[in-house]
Amino acid sequence: MAYSPSSSGWVSSWESLECSLESREASFILDMASGTVLSIPIGGTIARVERGLTMLSPVLTTMLAGIVTLLHPDRGQDQAGVPLGEAGRDAPAARLAEEVRRYGWLVFSARSERGDWDLFVCRPDGSDRRNLTRTPESNEAAAQFSRDGHRLLFRRLPVGEPIDGNHYGAQGELVLAGSDGSTPTVLGQSGEYPWASWSPDGRQVACLSVKGISIVDVATRQVLRKLPRLGFFQQLTWSPDGRWLSGVSNSFGVSWSVALIEIATGKAHAVSGADCCTPDWFPDSRRLVFSNRPAGQSENRGNGWTQLWMADADGRNRRLVYGEDGRHIYGGQVSPDGKYVVFTENVQEIGDPGHAGAPMGLLRLADVPIIGGESRELRKLHPDAKPGPVLVLPTGWEPCWTDAEVFAATTPAH
Fold this sequence. Notes:
By secondary structure, the protein is mostly beta strands.
């Protein structure tokens, strides 16, 4: 149920197509860090038509980058300060981008120009993208801002070790740093402090291993408390109010349940049943967002597509947030004010062809449920769903959102 990037030298195919019958002008918008073709503006009207995939070699990607420079020199630049795809956004999407543009930062993993996985940040509308780590000898993944936005934790592993979508929280070393990536400090050895998640005050981390759950003091690295894991095996997240730990468990009669453990009592209960993962909390600690693959789908050769859902912490009031036949929706994270959610759309279960990740997306929770693409089967089940707006953001993996100002000066990166 999880997904991951990989380390191939090929880059992924078309992610979107903008087209108009009134213009012959064409250009390509590329993610210059990963080499991914993100969109192809031809005039001003948007129509996403790609669902089949065509592998683009590094040589062809270089040729396309040259076309970018020839036709639109400004679009071959770093995109710093320019929201991704801004030229092709319709009015509702443009208004959404304006709402969130200065609302903090997203941190995420993405391919660098050298081919390794670094940590990047961007504004929530996709602008001002910056590389935080620049470590060609390592891959970085699973970044989390502390709740106050002052610190960052992530996993660092050798560049030759692919990031595993089911084990990334236990791979490599746990690193703590400033929210801008400064003063990185390694805690322990490779594999220690697995699935670490910040406490609300940032003074502790909760870790999950086969031996159980450990609450660790960050300053002293002492284990303050232990809890039985009760079938929980990945994706541990501490609730904002400090009372709960969410995660993925196999202890409720089915596999891959999103469930909670109450820290004070050690008691656990399920929030959503089979085939769910990547849970995250709303800021009120009363609701969660998570990925869910409902049973009974005929699409994708009967395997179905993973959708983004939300529910109360007691499992009630389950509802669709976003779905799109042809895309698996993972890594949902709610904004610090609880009004928006960011996520990753990827075409294949364990990472898109080309292994460069997939575009992130952002939507307004007041607009849900939203269904993207044609998605005929899904629309029949949710006839009240809206078509958007959904912002298409840079290619990335496992985004995390803070409303804090990460940098002392917020001038565009160079």
